[in-house]
User: Which sequence fits this backbone?
């Protein structure tokens, strides 16, 4: 087991290892003064791990409540959010009780937002069960729901009280979800760790979950501690996300986040080489590693449609948008560009 401590506005530990779910109740008890634990999960995850969590919680003398929603990004909306907080109220949760997110990124985002807003904020614990959530969304305090006009348009920064990454839960992860998580891990390598990037090319992530997850969490911790509320440096974590979020939106969220980010990374890296920000060959090296994990490189959406979707994203401020542009393997810069210049990057990245 490994532990990474995050010193944000709230200090908390991220524990990573096998067999942690069995003792999750003892961790949750540390933050539960009111005696009630309200677990949010989806219809795919709860049948697998809900019973084990319930037993662990009740073993600590705590009262267990659950809310289970239909799996998928389409559930990360204001209606499901409303159901969650209504059920929290119905269960009699107080500000001394704890919300628990048991699942992937959608579950963590919507549970965190409910915890941030219910009674103006209650503690919550993240128990991610997907690789993508382990390495990215469970850490850093970003919580949100989607609107019809865009992803993560309503949310709050609300740090968890603890994050428990039980690598045993990844044994039931579908191959496609494993690959989605690998896209975010490749992102970390491109951002700031060439050694990690080269290791991904040589050794499958699933062969070294604990160390790979720990390294990604350490990298995210460093960025979050430097810029918790995304006023500057934290934007580097959006590598591939400007075009990636456009792909998700244009597909009606049928293309999952990891795959969309993979395409977005490929587009911006090709653009970086084409426009002279990165040396030749960097885009080809990234493409090789993405292919190794069966991740897509291209989209049929047009440059104009992609740009239009991107302009509506929350990353746009006034008439400009900040792009994360690779300059080499393991190195990126933030480049603020006028929105009208975004199409130049899209075309340089291979879009039509």
Assistant:
């Amino acid at each position: 087991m490994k532990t990474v401590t995050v010193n944000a506005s709230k200090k908390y530990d991220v524990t990573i290892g096998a067999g942690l779910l069995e003792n999750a109740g003892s961790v949750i008890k540390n933050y539960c003064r009111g005696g009630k634990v309200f677990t949010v999960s989806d219809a795919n995850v709860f049948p697998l791990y809900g019973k084990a969590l319930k037993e662990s919680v009740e073993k600590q003398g705590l009262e267990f409540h659950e809310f289970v929603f239909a799996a998928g990004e389409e559930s990360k909306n204001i209606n499901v959010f409303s159901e969650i907080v209504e059920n929290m109220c119905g269960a009699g949760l107080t500000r001394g009780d704890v919300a628990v997110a048991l699942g992937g990124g959608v579950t963590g985002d919507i549970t965190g937002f409910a915890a941030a807003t219910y009674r103006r904020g209650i503690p919550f614990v993240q128990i991610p069960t997907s690789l993508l959530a382990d390495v990215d969304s469970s850490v850093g305090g970003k919580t949100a729901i989607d609107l019809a006009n865009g992803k993560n348009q309503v949310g709050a920064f609300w740090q968890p009280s603890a994050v428990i990454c039980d690598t045993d839960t990844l044994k039931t992860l579908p191959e496609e979800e494993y690959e989605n998580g690998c896209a975010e891990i490749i992102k970390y390598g491109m951002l700031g760790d060439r050694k990690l990037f080269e290791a991904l090319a040589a050794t499958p992530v699933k062969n070294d979950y604990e160390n790979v997850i720990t390294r990604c969490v350490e990298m995210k911790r460093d960025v979050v501690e430097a810029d918790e509320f995304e006023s500057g440096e934290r934007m580097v974590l959006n590598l591939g996300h400007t075009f990636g979020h456009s792909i998700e939106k244009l597909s009606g969220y049928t293309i999952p986040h990891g795959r969309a980010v993979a395409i977005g990374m490929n587009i911006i890296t090709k653009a970086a080489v084409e426009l002279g920000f990165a040396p030749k060959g960097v885009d080809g090296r990234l493409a090789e590693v993405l292919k190794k994990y069966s991740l897509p490189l291209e989209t049929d959406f047009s440059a104009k449609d992609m740009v239009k979707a991107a302009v509506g994203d929350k990353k746009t401020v006034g008439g400009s948008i900040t792009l994360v542009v690779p300059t080499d393997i393991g190195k990126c810069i933030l480049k603020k560009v006028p929105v009208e210049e975004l199409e130049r990057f899209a075309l340089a990245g291979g879009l039509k």
User: Anything to note?
Assistant: The domain at 175-348 is CATH 1.20.1090.10 (Dehydroquinate synthase-like, alpha domain).
